[in-house]
């Protein structure tokens, strides 16, 4: 079965306090040099049948209507080899 | 004929009982609606109550929005039926695109539970007609995903059209843009807000005030005169 990954991230202009909290914790843990952190979601879809243009179009539609809220989030669909 | 106001219960809804009670105290007949049932049982208005429907999985309101009952609620709301979304209900309304914008995690990342002062900015909606524009009320606020966001163009549009229905007073509790606590659609029949008017309808409980009751009396009056 092929795996399709959908990454969902808050749009750049949307404040991400969770990412900021992670970024602020890093120096305390000894991890220096990270200027910014943005936190997102990753969906791994195990697709039955071929991942053709049609399947990708459906996944794109799924991401747009359900996995991401496009008012606040961007998403990227990619096939994992 | 008694006005019938429905309150939807999703798995994880918490405030359906209080909302039904508020409807009854305001003088209407409360009707329980079930998330898997498309039938709205001939109600005249619907309240989407607060809580954590579907555990807030994916995003608050994102899964509830596709439940069978919402198909009918969305259709009826577009046809003019009054719909009030409180807290999680507001999140469901934005996910349904009945109201613009979206709700995100509070900017300080903490759950808030306290009384909150609000200003009623628009007293002409189906759910606010028994208030006066500019009136200050105090009702409980309790959430973690209460930060209202929308892009600048939408915010300007909401302001210009008087669609910011409620604004936070005495400090912004969650980072909501422009201190927005609640909004209305252009027609004034769909209203959403994060604070909880249904918890402020009896002098004996909650805030000890009844500042929230006018939401429910407003809609009854609106329906009776319609």
TrEMBL record, chain A:
Its EC number is 6.3.5.3. Its main location: cytoplasm. InterPro entries: PurS, PurS-like_sf. Pathway: Purine metabolism; IMP biosynthesis via de novo pathway; 5-amino-1-(5-phospho-D-ribosyl)imidazole from N(2)-formyl-N(1)-(5-phospho-D-ribosyl)glycinamide: step 1/2. The keyword ATP-binding applies. It catalyses: N(2)-formyl-N(1)-(5-phospho-beta-D-ribosyl)glycinamide + L-glutamine + ATP + H2O = 2-formamido-N(1)-(5-O-phospho-beta-D-ribosyl)acetamidine + L-glutamate + ADP + phosphate + H(+). Part of the phosphoribosylformylglycinamidine synthase complex involved in the purines biosynthetic pathway. Catalyzes the ATP-dependent conversion of formylglycinamide ribonucleotide (FGAR) and glutamine to yield formylglycinamidine ribonucleotide (FGAM) and glutamate. The FGAM synthase complex is composed of three subunits. PurQ produces an ammonia molecule by converting glutamine to glutamate. PurL transfers the ammonia molecule to FGAR to form FGAM in an ATP-dependent manner. This is Phosphoribosylformylglycinamidine synthase subunit PurS. It comes from Streptomyces amakusaensis.
From TrEMBL, chain B:
Its EC number is 6.3.5.3, 3.5.1.2. It catalyses: N(2)-formyl-N(1)-(5-phospho-beta-D-ribosyl)glycinamide + L-glutamine + ATP + H2O = 2-formamido-N(1)-(5-O-phospho-beta-D-ribosyl)acetamidine + L-glutamate + ADP + phosphate + H(+); L-glutamine + H2O = L-glutamate + NH4(+). It comes from the Bacteria. GO terms for biological process: 'de novo' IMP biosynthetic process. Keywords: ATP-binding, Cytoplasm, Glutamine amidotransferase, Hydrolase, Ligase, Nucleotide-binding, Purine biosynthesis. It is found in: Cytoplasm. Pathway: Purine metabolism; IMP biosynthesis via de novo pathway; 5-amino-1-(5-phospho-D-ribosyl)imidazole from N(2)-formyl-N(1)-(5-phospho-D-ribosyl)glycinamide: step 1/2. The active site is at 87 (nucleophile), 196, 198. The keyword Flavoprotein does not apply. One of its GO terms (molecular function) is phosphoribosylformylglycinamidine synthase activity. One of its GO terms (cellular component) is cytoplasm. Coiled coil: none annotated. Part of the phosphoribosylformylglycinamidine synthase complex involved in the purines biosynthetic pathway. Catalyzes the ATP-dependent conversion of formylglycinamide ribonucleotide (FGAR) and glutamine to yield formylglycinamidine ribonucleotide (FGAM) and glutamate. The FGAM synthase complex is composed of three subunits. PurQ produces an ammonia molecule by converting glutamine to glutamate. PurL transfers the ammonia molecule to FGAR to form FGAM in an ATP-dependent manner. PANTHER family: PHOSPHORIBOSYLFORMYLGLYCINAMIDINE SYNTHASE SUBUNIT PURQ. Part of the FGAM synthase complex composed of 1 PurL, 1 PurQ and 2 PurS subunits. This is Phosphoribosylformylglycinamidine synthase subunit PurQ. It comes from Streptomyces inusitatus. The lineage of its organism: Bacteria, Bacillati, Actinomycetota, Actinomycetes, Kitasatosporales.
């Amino acid at each position: 079965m092929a795996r399709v990954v959908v990454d969902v991230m808050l749009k750049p202009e949307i404040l991400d306090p969770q990412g900021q909290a992670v970024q602020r914790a890093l120096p305390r843990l000894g991890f220096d040099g990270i200027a910014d952190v943005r936190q997102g979601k990753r969906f791994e879809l195990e697709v039955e049948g071929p991942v053709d243009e049609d399947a990708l179009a459906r996944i794109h539609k799924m991401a747009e209507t359900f996995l991401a809220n496009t008012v606040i989030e961007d998403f990227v669909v990619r096939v994992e080899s | 004929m008694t006005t019938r106001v429905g309150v939807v219960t999703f798995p994880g809804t918490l405030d359906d009982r209080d909302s039904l009670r508020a409807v009854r105290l305001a003088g209407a007949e409360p009707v329980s609606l079930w998330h898997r049932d498309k039938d709205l049982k001939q109600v005249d208005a619907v309240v989407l109550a607060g809580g954590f429907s579907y555990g807030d999985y994916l995003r608050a309101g994102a899964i509830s929005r596709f439940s069978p009952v919402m198909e009918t609620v969305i259709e009826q709301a577009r046809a003019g039926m009054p719909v009030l979304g409180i807290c999680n209900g507001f999140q469901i309304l934005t996910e349904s695109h009945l109201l613009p914008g979206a709700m995100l995690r509070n900017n300080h990342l903490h759950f808030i539970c306290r009384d909150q002062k609000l200003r009623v900015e628009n007293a002409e909606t189906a759910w606010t007609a028994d208030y006066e524009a500019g009136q200050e009320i105090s009702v409980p606020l309790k959430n973690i995903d209460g930060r209202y966001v929308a892009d600048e163009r939408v915010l300007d549009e909401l302001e210009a059209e008087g669609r910011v229905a409620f604004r936070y007073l005495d400090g912004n509790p969650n980072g909501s843009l422009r201190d927005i606590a609640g909004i209305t659609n252009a027609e004034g029949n769909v209203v959403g807000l994060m604070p909880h008017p249904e918890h402020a309808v009896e002098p004996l409980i909650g805030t000890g005030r009844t500042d929230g009751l006018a939401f429910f009396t407003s809609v009854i009056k609106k329906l009776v005169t319609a």
